């Protein structure tokens, strides 16, 4: 019987979800997709969790869809319903999701990275949209990738399937930071320390703000944002944050992660 391929651990408000199928290069097999979905949903529903980290064991973050399962499968058996749900769950999570990559990502694995809010990788990582070289299209992952990656870069990389490095991934908007491998965990910890200082409702609202479509009218946009701002200032969390600032103390929601947060 196959063991679990995804694990979750929660410490100090941080839920770390780990892809643990290194023998299969953490490919998105049916089992891994099911388990990843369950862990994402459980972490989002857990009131003690403030931030999610998506990471991996082994030398590869994620090789994309499991091609052994895809061979000979019909269009209704390719995981086309599960993968969009996973990407949408990450994208719409009210809690920040941080991707931590110590190894390469390919195809669907790049889509997972692009769905996360912050994406931190070792500078030795490589990436590629390999779909066209297999005679398929990067359709599903384009939904998340094209919302952050520069259009001309996406066109080049989608069409050629060329492998590119972490520095280029950061330059085109796929990564937040690329750092030396020995500094990766410290950089992840630095971001977690900052994220856990944010109010939970404020973080969820800010994520919604970043994801929402922009109105065509500037006046409508200002009106909507004015109402949103006023509601958050008046809410209990906003009032607690203001009191804490004036009293020179940490707000009640701030989590001590041991990550050097200030």
UniProtKB/TrEMBL annotation:
User: What GO molecular function terms would the record report?
Assistant: catalytic activity
State the family it belongs to: Belongs to the enoyl-CoA hydratase/isomerase family.
Name of the protein this chain belongs to: Enoyl-CoA hydratase
The gene behind this protein is: paaG
């Amino acid at each position: 019987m196959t063991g679990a391929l995804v694990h979750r651990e929660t410490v100090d408000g941080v839920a770390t979800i780990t892809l643990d199928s290194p023998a299969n290069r953490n490919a998105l097999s049916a089992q891994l997709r099911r388990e990843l979905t369950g862990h994402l949903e459980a972490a989002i529903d857990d009131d003690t969790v403030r931030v999610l980290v998506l990471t991996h064991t082994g030398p590869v973050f994620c090789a994309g869809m499991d091609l052994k399962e895809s061979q000979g499968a019909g269009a209704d058996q390719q995981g086309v319903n599960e993968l969009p749900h996973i990407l949408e769950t990450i994208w719409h999570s009210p809690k920040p999701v941080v991707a931590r990559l110590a190894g390469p990502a390919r195809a669907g694995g790049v889509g997972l990275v692009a769905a996360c809010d912050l994406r931190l990788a070792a500078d030795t990582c490589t990436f590629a949209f390999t779909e066209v070289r297999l005679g398929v299209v990067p359709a599903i992952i384009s939904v998340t990738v094209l919302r952050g990656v520069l259009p001309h870069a996406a066109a080049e990389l989608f069409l050629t399937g060329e492998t590119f490095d972490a520095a280029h991934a950061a330059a085109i908007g796929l990564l937040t930071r690329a750092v030396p491998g020995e500094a990766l965990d410290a950089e992840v910890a630095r971001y977690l320390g900052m994220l856990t200082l944010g109010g939970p409702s404020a973080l969820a609202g800010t994520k919604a703000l970043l994801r929402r479509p922009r109105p065509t009218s500037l006046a409508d946009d200002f009106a909507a944002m004015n109402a949103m701002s006023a509601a958050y200032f008046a809410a209990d969390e906003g009032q607690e944050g203001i009191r804490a600032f004036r009293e020179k103390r940490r707000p009640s929601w701030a989590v001590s992660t041991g990550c050097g947060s200030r």
